[in-house]
Structure formats: C-alpha cells, structure tokens
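Why do we care about 3D structure at all? Because function follows from shape, and shape follows, mostly, from sequence. That is the central idea of this module. The next example makes it concrete: a single protein chain, its amino acid sequence, and then its structure expressed as tokens.
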Amino acid sequence: MAAAGTGSNPDMEIENDNKPTNHPRKMNLILVPTLLPLRTKNEPSKTGRPPHKGATNSYFDRPTTEFHGGKRRRPVDEDEDPDEGPMTGPPPGCPWMGHRNYSKMASVPIMLTQELWDFVDYISPTKEEHQIQEYVVRLVRKTVKDLWSNADVVVFGSFDTMLYLPTSDLDIVLLRDGGFNKLDLNRLASHLRRSGIANEVTVISKAKVPLVKFKESITGIPVDISFNLTNGIDSGQVISTYINEIPALRPLTMLVKYFLMIKNHNEVYKGGIGSYTTVIMILSFLQMHPQIQVGNIDPMDNLGVLLIEFFELYGLCFNYTRVGLTVRDNGSYFEKKDMPTNHRSGRSGQAQKLLLSCIDPNDPTNDTAKGSYSLQKIREVFAGAYGALTQAVQNRDRELFMDDKRVSSSHVQFDDRNRVAADSKQKSSGLHRSTQVSLIKEVYQVPMHIIRHRQKIAKVFLDGTYQVMFGDPIVHSLDLKTV
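And the structure:
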C-alpha cells in the first residue's frame, strides 16, 4: 500500500556519476494511510491555524490565546453544538487543550493537527515573556559595557529567529576589535558576580566554543555568552529566510525542539541535537517530501501527519551509516563516503557509524551534527514518538468513527476504558463527544518546573521590576498574544 508520503529514499541509491538522487522511498512511511490522509490544497482548512501569506515574522500578530488569572483561555469554537453535551475541559496535564471541542472535527488527523497548533501556541512566548527577555538583554548589555565599553553585545540564536521555548537559553555574543582571550572569560564571570545580575556563573573555557553561562538573578533566565564568533548570527539570518519561504518550518521546529528538550537530547555538549541542526533536519524533510515538492499539499494544514512522518523518517527509516543531508539548492541526500574528511568526527567504531551528517548551508565544510554522538538514543525516542502518535490516532479513530458502525444494540455501550459511549443510532453520544482526549499527551508534557518558570516571568512583568530599573512606564498587559 502506498505511503501517505514523505521524502526521498534515505537508503539512497547512488548513480554512476555520484550525484545525489531523489528516488521515491520503497517502504511505507505511514502504516495506516487511510487513517492519516494528507489534506490537499483544494480542500478547505478545518483547523484554527493562522493564515500564512508569506513571511511569519510579524511575531505577535496571531490572535490566539489570552491569559486570564495566569491561565490561558481558548476561544470557544464558533460551530460548537450544545446538543453534543457539555465540554469537560482539558484532561489532566494537557493545559494547551483548553475547551476546544476537538471531537467535533471531521477526522482524527484534523484533530491531531489542531491539537498540535494549540500546543505550539501554548509553548510559544507571550508578548510579556518576550518583553522580559528584551529587558534581560538590556541588563546584560549595560553590565558588559561597564566592563568593556568598546564591546558590541549581539543577541542571536532562537531569540533572534523567534524559535525559543519557555526555558531556552538566551544566546549572546560579544564582538570587539582585537578579540578576547581566555582570561577575559574569567574577567567577565567575576564582573557578572560582582554586579549582582547573575547566579550560577560557570566558565567553560575548554569547549570548542568557550562560554560564560549563568542565570539572570531576577528571572532565572539562562544566558550563554560567547566571544567574537559570528557564525551564530549568520545562521540566524539563514533560518529566518527559510521560515519566510516555508512557514511550516516554524511550528515543526517548535514541536521537535520541545520534544528534544523534555527528553534531554537538546544539548550538543551532551551529545544531543542543537537548534540549528534541528532546523536543518526539518527543512530537509520538508524539501524532500514528494507531496510538498509537487505542490499537492499545504504543510500548514497537515502538521499532524508531517510530524508523525518526521519521527518515522529519523527514527526508523533514515540510513545514518551511509547517508547525509544538505538543504542547499533545494535539498538533497548524499553518500557519506563522498564527504570531506573534515566533516567527520574523531570518534571511531559504532559511534562513528551512528552520527548524523548535516551540511551547514552557510559553510559547506561544516557538519553541524558531528557532535551529536547520542544519535542512537535520539533515534530510539523518535521511533517511540512515532509509535505513540500513530497508536493514539488509531485508537481515537476507532473510538469516534469505527466502533459506532458496529453498534446495533439499543443500549449504551462503553469501551474497555469505560470512557466512550455510543447510542443505537450509530451516532456519538453526548458523553462520547464531550470527553476531551489528547492525542499527543504520551509524547508531549508540560513539566511543573516550566509552568512555575512562566508564572515567575509573568509576576516579574506585572511587578514592574525592570520597568522601574530602566525608567519605563509600568504596563500590566501587552494583550498577552502569542506567536
């Protein structure tokens, strides 16, 4: 049975001229294609996703969630039918679901896409949170200038590209003529401690990229300061360009980054996959997807299926031992034996074979994934996420649609979880439709430390601590709109 469709064959046959080829995949990527259809561009969208004409850098223009009393409140569905029974609210541990009536949607894949959009909205920063990040940048800049008046303090990374998560590090680079030396790392660390703006100050001087790491003392926001390296700035500009061209890159990046974060696989120095490599992997996946290549589908309307296919591609199907990827020139795969020696890690044996190879679109000699040595574990959690999401979709489809067709008795029936009822008219009952069921809760969770951190940021904003510090007027709300 043909797959619902992702990109080119990751086992990749190599032609005689050694050029990368884009042969269609020979294995199914979605095991239940009739259950997970791709929505074509000719079909109207039935999700609450934002419009996406061109660039999405109008970061806070999306009219979505509001905060009331520190909690997000979702807009009520316009087509909500009171005859379907009262909504019970989100399941425990799923605050992103609000009171949206997912079960009224036309199919389970549409429900999945909508819930993922709601989750992206939930984990995206509010205007208040972004304002606090900007205040932290101003505070760091002032403190550094007190030490080195000729230094430029530049923010880059996920803050610059608007792809940061609630607990993401704030990446800052210091630039000045003449550069810095290792003594300057310790000098800056001592200055930060004396100034009182930093806690848990750590100097990492022996890494490939020396850093001063700390947590800002008021908010606890983690900050990484590097020195005289501009490649991070260049990378951010490339990512912003790609997001303008392919709007679906942003929500998929937020989802995969968050997943890697909660699995503790997002730190390169621990063998994880960094943000830049994550973006390249997702971009390659979208570039090589045959349905996207020919323009048959809008990725923004197929977020759920695409996320499942992403996890399957990199969790089960991709041939890491032979194949690398590049996003240059609309993307392609290449055979690793043709890779320049300086792309490869010094690791040997099995660890070497399990390394992903991602070519930096800014620098063809740089393999951005060469430090991600925990690939075996990452591949396993990707495969697990694929299995969990696929099973959740299958189960929900059976509960909402398939089981009803087999009901012939006149009494109410429940499934083995004593949760879903169906009546004799082969229509979902009020209980059936009003019970909120999350399709992603086995893969995505919101730990309490993230909730507490966001509550702390909100309190700092409402207290006006930074506004007083910088002489700005105290504003208690910025409409609390998210991305």
